[in-house]
Design brief:
The complex is a heterodimer of chains A (about 290) and B (about 350). Chain A is mainly alpha-helical and about 290 residues long. Helices cover about 75% and strands about 0% of the residues of chain A. Chain B contains 13 helices and ten strands. In chain B, helix 6 packs parallel to helix 13. The chains are: A mainly alpha (about 290), B alpha/beta (about 350).
Chain lengths: ~290, ~350
């Protein structure tokens, strides 16, 4: 009886363990976000940085300006394209990693994580060396005689998509691998035993059962893509604008904190909406299957 | 308060820079300080290493002042300074910034007016570079860089970049948008208080397929691969690039070079002001100035520091060139920076 009471007490105290982390998140994330949200209603007066006010002007400017709407649309397009491509590219690798019996499996997983040990900027610098006019890719194309003049790859949207996918692919592979590993292999074997072709097994068994992993990976990768900064700046060139570089421009170069804060919240809301939309779409698919 | 640098002041004062190198130690040695630490907001890399080697070890070491570095690029440093301005106690004792950034942050009420009586080396500052709220640390000037293997004859004016025979061979660094607009304005009837004519002139250059690179490094790579042959850049960086084997030669435009000054100031809420003044004074030490400037490719800002003949030829501006210096109007830049950046992003780059 006494032991039970002690157990109850311990359980009732358990939520308190969340307190330090909750306070920390509130202090270092919640409060600055609230401050930034307040800034987004201030007014920018050139030469004075920021003037206290309560105005919707910054949000109105964003939604009335085709330039910034286009920046948001570019960001959404790049994020969706990179997320979809990373699911397609990651799935076979994740499936192989989940099912392999190789004694090198741990090594292969470490190799997958390996790119994450290098910062985005360093990776982008590597891509610059590969994709530039004098880079490795163009040198090979010219050597093979496929082109006489270098093909412009660096400073194009294609370079940004390649660079972002390279950044997010390990996250997608690891997320999918852990979910595929939890799918009992005998389910696939049973389907095959009943005459299902490999493609049918994939379509009817593996894909539906791995949808929770696809969902988690899509959310994780989608958020990273929406907020990409270094890759679009370094590989997209100065003409290519996504939201994170655009808001950096406002805060750091134009010193327009109120508009920069408004851009930050537009980006945040757009990211949340896209995340919700993809979650709902994939959940509906799971329920239907 | 608005500082004002007139061409005459600068000319009169820079002439004094021909004076010999004073080997006397910094005057702060005699001071007894009420503090033992100083936190310096600075760039990292070479900049930080040279601060340590030329000022901190040599001058401040004798004063037993411990230096901590708050290393960041200028935008986060500006943001931190402005965010902390209402705090009773700030975190930075000394902040280093370029002149336009410094002015902008000063206008936000961050920096204190300097008490020059606490700066023994302050009297040696080139008077035209002296501000009420900051000391000049190093300076250089904006000039034309061109590829001597491809461009002939050598350019003499910013207008040479608009020559149709160099179509597609002019490239700029994105970060220098104000300087590029200023150069275009100067050859199109504009002035430092009216950069608007630069827009029409740059629209012409856009039709000639001018390129904009996202960073100085990307521009350097394009110059090295001879993808572009022309740019507008700081002389200091031009010399660094030339020394690194990039095919560039330097040309001071007949319209005049525009100086860029890097400065140091003390926030009003600096916790260790005595040490901050000692640090600023150390930064004006003539030997340290010469050592720092030579390594960074910049020119000293005190009249009693001199460079050797080769460095002077590479880095310094002649008396005639100094006469023609175009001094930016920092108030105009602060008020028009956002709209000029907007135009640059949408119209020129877009």
């Amino acid at each position: 009886m006494t032991a039970l009471a002690a157990g109850d007490r311990r359980r009732s105290l358990a939520p308190l363990l969340l307190l330090p982390a909750a306070v920390l998140v509130l202090a270092v994330l919640g409060m600055p976000l609230l401050t930034l949200f307040r800034y987004s209603f201030n007014r920018f007066v050139p030469g004075q940085l920021m003037v206290e006010a309560v105005t919707w002007d910054n949000y109105a400017r964003f939604f009335q300006d085709p330039y910034f709407l286009n920046v948001l649309w570019t960001t959404v397009q790049v994020a969706i394209l990179c997320t979809v491509l990373s699911v397609i590219l990651a799935f076979p690798v994740a499936y192989f990693l989940a099912r392999t019996q190789s004694r090198f499996k741990s090594l292969l997983i470490i190799l997958t994580v390996f790119p994450l040990l290098v910062g985005n900027v360093v990776r982008a610098a590597g891509w610059m060396a590969l994709l530039g006019n004098q880079g490795f890719v163009n040198a090979v194309l010219i050597w093979l005689g496929l082109t006489q003049q270098p093909v412009k790859i660096l400073y194009t949207p294609a370079a940004v998509v390649i660079g972002i996918i390279a950044v997010v692919l390990p996250y997608m592979i690891l997320t999918l691998q852990s979910v595929i590993e939890s799918i009992d292999r005998s389910v696939e074997e049973a389907a095959a035993n009943l005459g299902a072709r490999p493609l049918t097994v994939f379509r009817r068994i593996i894909l539906p059962l791995s949808l929770p992993g696809v969902l988690a990976g899509t959310v994780l990768v989608g958020i990273l893509c929406m907020n990409a900064y270094a890759t679009p700046v370094l590989l997209g060139g100065s003409q290519f604008k996504m939201m994170a570089p655009a808001l950096y421009d406002q805060v750091a170069r134009a010193s327009n904190w109120p508009f920069g804060a408004a851009l930050a919240f537009v980006l945040k809301v757009a990211t949340v909406l896209l995340t919700l939309a993809s979650t709902l779409a994939l959940k509906r698919r799971t329920t239907r299957d | 308060m608005r500082h004002s640098l007139t061409r005459r002041q600068l000319l009169a004062s820079t002439g004094l820079a021909a004076g010999g190198l004073a080997l006397t130690a910094s005057g702060v040695g005699a001071q007894s300080l009420s503090c033992s630490d100083v936190n310096v907001g600075t760039w990292g890399g070479d900049y930080q290493d040279l601060l340590i080697a030329n000022f901190e070890k040599r001058v401040l070491g004798g004063l037993k002042v411990e230096v901590a570095h708050d290393v960041a690029n200028a935008p986060p440093r500006k943001t931190k300074l402005v965010t902390e301005r209402t705090a009773r106690r700030g975190t930075m004792d000394v902040a280093l910034l370029s002149e336009s950034d410094m002015y902008e942050v000063y206008k936000a009420g961050v920096f204190e007016e300097l008490d020059y009586s606490k700066l023994k080396n302050g009297a040696n500052i080139i008077p035209a570079l002296r501000r009420s709220y900051s000391i000049p640390h190093i300076y250089s000037g904006k000039i034309i860089l061109y590829n001597p293997n491809k461009v002939s004859p050598a350019p003499t004016s910013y207008a040479d970049l608009w020559d149709p025979k160099y179509k597609g061979r002019v490239g700029f660094a994105d970060g220098l948008y104000i300087q590029i607009i200023e150069s275009a304005a100067i050859i199109n009837g504009g002035s430092v208080t009216n950069l608007e004519p630069g827009k029409a002139k740059l629209a012409e250059l856009k039709k000639l397929d001018a390129k904009v690179y996202p960073s100085n490094e990307a521009l350097a790579a394009a110059l090295k691969s001879e993808e572009v042959w022309f740019t507008i850049m700081w002389r200091a960086r031009g010399v660094q690039w030339r020394n690194a084997g990039i095919p560039v030669a330097l040309a001071v435009p007949k319209e005049g070079a525009t100086p860029i000054i890097f400065e140091a100031a003390i926030p009003k809420n600096a916790p260790n002001k005595d040490c901050a003044y000692a640090y600023l004074d150390a930064m004006l030490d003539p030997q340290g100035q010469a050592g720092f400037a030579a390594k960074m490719g910049y020119v000293p800002t005190v009249t009693n520091a001199t460079l050797d003949a080769k460095l002077t030829a590479d880095l310094s501006f002649t008396a005639d060139e100094q006469k023609k210096f175009i001094l930016p109007d920092l108030e105009y830049v602060a008020k028009n920076n956002a709209s000029l950046l907007d135009w640059w992003n949408r119209e020129f780059k877009g």
